[in-house]
TrEMBL record:
Protein name per its UniProtKB record: Flagella basal body P-ring formation protein FlgA
Keywords associated with the record: Bacterial flagellum biogenesis, Cell projection, Cilium, Flagellum, Periplasm, Signal
InterPro entries: Flagellar_FlgA (IPR039246), SAF (IPR013974), SAF_FlgA (IPR017585)
Main subcellular localisation: periplasm
């Protein structure tokens, strides 16, 4: 009998240990509701999420903050408002609501930058903004701004529209330029006048001052254009 009693005791202890382990594992399955909502919101938005975007979830006051999974989910992508039915670790369904806002990190001017200025790294700072405030034409990469010439005034703290900056102008309209012509291995030169502004590599029309004829050329450097034959 003592031996049988010992076996029963060991069996009960082993069963209790399994129950405790199972309970621990079940508890470990609970996650912050913000993470559960972020996952569902990301699935709702799909391809609309930029590479550097993240979803900032804010829950309403008084709702639960942990759960196992979301049973049902509704979201207005325009406002970010959502409602979700969350299943808790006890199997109960609790309704939560709040706002899930897509935010992106974008470079913005740290000061007001005037037209014709060249943007430097020190002129920019990175900030996180709601995607709705950024706009589809804004530049998301600082490398697309540094070294560019400002076309329209840039306001401090605001995303930069793509059309507000251009490559630096190296030829200005009306400027006298040197025309270089490569022809059959020979390099010839002539004086000309630019008919428009141009950045490096851009095609423009110039007037050959010797023949008074307009020709197409490529802006090569400050005051120099090239014609390839």
């Amino acid at each position: 009998m003592p031996r049988l009693s010992m076996l029963k005791t060991l069996t009960i202890q082993a069963f209790a240990a399994c129950v405790l382990l199972w309970a621990t594992q079940v508890q470990a399955l609970t996650l912050p509701v913000t993470e559960l909502v972020e996952e569902r919101a990301a699935a709702e938005m799909g391809r609309a999420i930029p590479a550097n975007g993240r979803i900032d979830v804010r829950l309403a006051k008084g709702v639960i903050h942990e759960g196992e999974f979301i049973q049902e989910f509704w979201m207005d992508q325009q406002t970010g408002q959502f409602i979700a039915n969350v299943v808790t670790e006890h199997g109960e369904t609790q309704r939560v609501w709040g706002v899930a806002v897509m935010t992106v990190e974008v470079p913005v001017p740290s000061r007001r930058i005037m037209p014709d200025e060249i943007v430097g790294p020190e002129d920019l700072t990175l900030v996180e903004l709601p995607l709705q405030r950024v706009g589809s034409f804004a530049l998301f990469d600082a490398n697309e701004l540094v070294g560019k010439q400002v076309r329209r005034m840039l306001v401090a703290g605001r995303p930069v529209p793509r059309h507000s900056v251009i490559p630096p102008i190296i030829i200005t309209r009306g400027e006298k330029v040197k025309i270089l012509l490569n022809y059959g291995g020979l390099q010839l030169s002539a004086r000309g006048r630019a008919m428009s502004d141009a950045h490096a590599g851009q095609e423009l029309r110039v007037v050959n001052l010797s023949s008074n004829k307009a020709i197409s050329a490529i802006a090569a450097a400050d005051g120099i254009v090239k014609v390839e034959k």
